[in-house]
Inverse folding.
């Protein structure tokens, strides 16, 4: 009987160690734009969630806390199934409608930006902490976009690139694209990464200046 008790104690102890690891593994996210960097990627890696430097990151963390930035790669919807436009409300595109990431939706002109040349060919990069097969669709805001207004689906032009299963190099997806022509000033690039092996999708917002 004593041996059986000891065995049960050992089993429970091992489960106590294993279960948090399993939960953590499930909760980890899967990727976000690295170049041009997304709002979450910038606040997590280019800045510091504990001591942000840009006004955008400071405001986002004040609104939603630091955890959203540590989970920079988890702006997702588990059951999107290609229906992102119908299930993400206007004004909540950058957060994918998730309250945890509400700070990403703040309409501001002090989000850190990447400088781009309109009409140029670039390699868009997306850091994948967990690679998944699927398609990446890139949208740019329309001319006349107002960064001080909440981002709506109607603020986006038709997608300027859609790529399925691009090459993955050292954990980074490499997507060769031609940027839209006729753009100047501050804009935003919105990315929808829809998995083909699951209904899950991921989203990112990158602030740019042409």
């Amino acid at each position: 009987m004593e041996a059986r008790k000891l065995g049960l104690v050992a089993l429970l102890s091992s489960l106590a160690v294993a279960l948090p690891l399993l939960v953590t593994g499930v909760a980890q996210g899967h990727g976000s734009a690295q170049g041009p960097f997304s709002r979450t990627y910038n606040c997590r890696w280019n800045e510091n969630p504990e001591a942000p430097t840009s006004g955008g990151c400071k405001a986002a963390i004040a609104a939603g806390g630091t955890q959203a930035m540590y989970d920079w790669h988890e702006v997702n919807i588990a059951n999107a199934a290609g229906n992102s436009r119908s299930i993400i409300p206007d004004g909540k595109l950058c957060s994918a409608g998730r309250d945890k990431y509400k700070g990403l939706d703040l309409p501001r002109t002090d989000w850190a930006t990447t400088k781009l040349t309109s009409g140029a060919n670039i390699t868009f990069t997306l850091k994948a902490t967990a690679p998944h097969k699927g398609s990446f669709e890139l949208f740019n805001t329309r001319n006349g976009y107002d960064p001080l207004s909440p981002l709506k689906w109607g603020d986006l032009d038709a997608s300027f690139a859609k790529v399925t299963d691009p090459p993955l190099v050292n954990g980074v997806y490499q997507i060769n694209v031609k940027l839209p022509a006729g753009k100047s000033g501050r804009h935003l690039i919105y990315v929808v990464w829809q998995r083909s092996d699951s209904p899950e999708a991921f989203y990112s917002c990158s602030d740019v200046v042409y």
Q: What stands out?
A: The radius of gyration is 20 Å. The chain has two domains: 1-29, 31-209.
